[in-house]
Amino acid sequence: MMVQNLALYEDKYYIRVNEENDTIFYFFDYDVRSADINMVFQHFHTFYELCIPLCPSAVHFIEGIPYEIRAFDIVGISPNRLHKTQYPAGKPCRRLIVQFNLPAQVPGFSDEYGQLMEIFDREVPIFRFDPELQKHLFGRLNDIYRLAQKTDPMRNLIIHQKFVEFLILLFLNRDSNIYSNESGLSELEKKVYAVAGYIHAHYPEELSLDSLAREFCISPSYLSHRFSEVTGFSVTDYIQMTRVRNVQALLVNTRIPITEVTEPCGFNCFSQFNRVFRKHIGMSPSQYRKLNQLPVPSAGEPAPPGRTAK
Q1: pLDDT tens digits, residue range 246-281?
Q2: Which residues contact 61 (CB under 8 A, 6 or more apart)?
Q3: Which one, 47, 97, 291, 293, has the greatest CB density within 10 A?
Q4: Do residues 88 and 35 touch, judged by C-beta distance below 8 A?
Q5: Cα Rg for the chain, rounded, in angstroms?
Q6: What span, in angstroms and rounded, lies between the C-alpha atoms of 7 and 61?
Q7: Exposed (0-12), middle (13-18) or buried (19+): which is 161, by Cβ within 10 Å?
Q8: Contacts of 221 (CB under 8 A, 6+ apart)
């Protein structure tokens, strides 16, 4: 089916090119999501991701900050960046998720692939374009949708070519982005999410309910109550989860000894770190690494894509 004469879509349709640990990897996931399965806390991937809502509205959180998104916005998330999408109550929302990875360097090119990926490193990597440009962008994705149903021996190569065309078009028109965060948040919610964003930006530092209350000139008791009311987490648990997620990224992507990943992520006491990690993840850091660590590439090689950490 065609959504608003722009994007081809079919429930529970997916396209896979290669496996997660291959240098070039794609997974296109056409599905629906609803409020009853919203993620509790933000997660990260070791690959790139595009989130494209095909419903009227949703909210995407990036490093603790909420961004209002609507149909055909393109949210680009770089590896290891904490994020989640929150869907509204009511009718399930259609969406397209594209998980992918590309080599950082390709023989015969300088840094073109690297430049393409830089658009996802923006502070707000959300793109909204006028209808004409949307038509061109989604035309590439629709081509991929059609091509995936063929058994042509060139299928995977053509899908790769079409997706690179999509990324190039996105890159070349990055300055035509008309996205703005039309937040419907109350002043209280804005204040709470400002605190959450601050936690994400300063998690390696000494943080506490009292220090955050001083930073934002509000009383600790008021912040404690309102933060829990808006986010569903106590301030302490939110700080701990943010730190744990960043430890998880290091455990998955590096071979740094576990005793050395804690301090850069804000844990000054190793026994406390072990206790907090088990509390939130349900296993020890060493067990988590054993189950999830990716092959670490040789010097100069790009890291391969991998799992989602939740």
Answers
A1: 999 999 999 999 999 999 999 999 999 999 999 999
A2: 42, 67, 83, 84, 85, 86
A3: 47
A4: yes
A5: 20
A6: 24
A7: middle
A8: none
115: CATH:
2.60.120.10
Residues 126-145: tens digit of each pLDDT: 999 999 999 999 999 999 99
- CA 139 to CA 121: how far, in whole Å? 25
Domain that holds residue 137: 2-176
68 three-class SS: strand
pTM above 0.85, yes or no: yes
Helices (H) and strands (E) in the chain, counts: 10, 13
How many Cα atoms within 13 Å fall on the side-chain side of residue 297?
Answer: 13
The number of beta carbons lying within 10 Å of the beta carbon of residue 61 is 21
Question: Do 88 and 158 fall within a single domain?
Answer: yes
C-alpha–C-alpha distance, residues 95 and 129, integer Å: 18
**How many residues are there in the chain?**
310
